[in-house]
Design brief:
The protein is of the alpha+beta class. It is 35% helix and 16% strand. Strand 2 and strand 3 form a beta hairpin. Helix 4 runs antiparallel to helix 8 and helix 4 crosses helix 9. The longest helix has 20 residues. The protein binds fe (ii) ion.
């Protein structure tokens, strides 16, 4: 039997999983033939998912609004992001930096084009000040509101090494939406991020579903499966900056920030990482929260259960290790052993 024939015969077995994906967070027009179907999308499948998810996010956000500082809520509703300079008291921020930069910690690295991303779980005992930040109720409230649904975010230390000399295109530097529904991301920057340090760029207001955006979403869904831009086909729609005005949005804003600034954003809004013209290293606590967008209630997150909460990244790495040991499966996340957060990438110079 050919692999294609096996695939065809196995399709009925996989159909329930594809259907479950349609009712959940699945976004890929390539991996899921229901979501990718130009026929179903002409009938309005993608448009219906986008519209229902946005309506549910509105409803769940209304239920969460009282947990936010009114100024943060107003900024978020208007722009799709909140910027909080000097987020931690100076002594707390110094203690956090001391713990993060003061030693080596287990970590993994992944390369995308000229950019290497290092993820350091917060579970290493000396990282207690980082865990204290991750456990804050006000931080959970902000990312829950941005995500349009409260829950237990995944948080870790992230180091981004950008080096244009390494070549290749980093897919994160193209203007895009992460998925078809509200989703929360946060960054507590531990280093300054200047004009040339690959700052975060966001299109203010682009988290709002305008009638023009909905029509654009529908249009993209008809051809996304065959689109040459791989991440577009995987459901993170790319857009040229010239296309923003037609959707009712303004110009992208670059976020140059000082260390100890917190940014929380709904990355359904269009955003990207500005390309760096020179080698740069950015260190931050990064978090994300993406949950089923169709359910009307907040909370009830399995990731919030004891033993899982705060350990999601360790569990994910453990699962990757099991796959490697038992199935010989490779991973894009490479383990070079314990390392300082700002040590050179790729296991070099250690
Ligand atoms: Fe993104």
């Amino acid at each position: 039997m050919t692999p294609k024939l096996i695939d065809t015969l196995a399709a009925p077995l996989r159909a329930p999983f594809w259907l479950a994906g349609v009712l959940g967070t699945e976004k890929s027009f390539l991996a899921n033939p229901i979501i990718g179907s130009p026929y179903l999308n002409r009938l309005g499948l993608h448009r219906a998912r986008v519209r229902l998810a946005a309506a549910m996010a509105r409803r769940r956000r209304a239920a969460m609004a009282a947990r936010l500082d009114p100024a943060d809520r107003a900024a978020f509703d208007r722009d799709g992001f909140v910027v909080r300079p000097d987020f931690l008291p100076p002594e707390a921020f110094d203690a956090l930096r001391g713990a993060v930069f003061g030693g080596v910690h287990p970590a993994r690295e992944m390369r995308q084009g000229g950019t290497v991303t290092r993820m350091t779980p917060l579970s290493d005992p000396p990282l207690a000040p980082a865990r204290a930040f991750a456990a804050r109720e006000d931080v959970a409230a902000l990312i829950g509101y941005a995500a349009g649904r409260s829950g237990a975010p995944v948080m870790f230390l992230q180091t981004v090494f950008a080096d244009p000399a390494r070549g290749g295109v980093d897919p994160q530097t193209a203007l895009h939406a992460d998925t078809f529904h509200a989703t929360g991301k946060l960054w507590l920057f531990l280093t300054d991020v200047g004009e040339n340090d690959g700052p975060f760029v966001f299109v203010p207001g682009s988290h709002r579903l305008t009638p023009e955006r909905l029509a654009w979403e529908h249009e993209q869904s008809l051809t996304a499966r065959g689109d040459a831009r791989r991440h577009h086909a995987l459901g993170s729609f790319r857009i040229a900056p010239e296309g923003l005005a037609a959707l009712g949005y303004g110009a992208p804003r670059r976020m140059m920030v000082k260390a100890n600034t917190l940014i929380v954003a709904d990355t359904y809004g269009f955003h990207h990482r500005a390309p760096s013209p020179r080698p740069t290293t950015r260190v931050e606590i990064h978090g994300y929260l993406r949950r089923n967008p169709f359910l009307p209630w907040n909370g009830l997150d399995p990731a919030g259960l004891p033993g899982v909460r705060g350990r999601q990244l360790d569990l994910y790495f453990g699962w990757l290790d099991l796959r490697r040991q038992h199935l010989g499966a490779g991973s894009i996340w490479k383990d070079y052993g314990p390392v300082a957060v700002d040590a050179p990438a790729g296991g070099q110079a250690r």
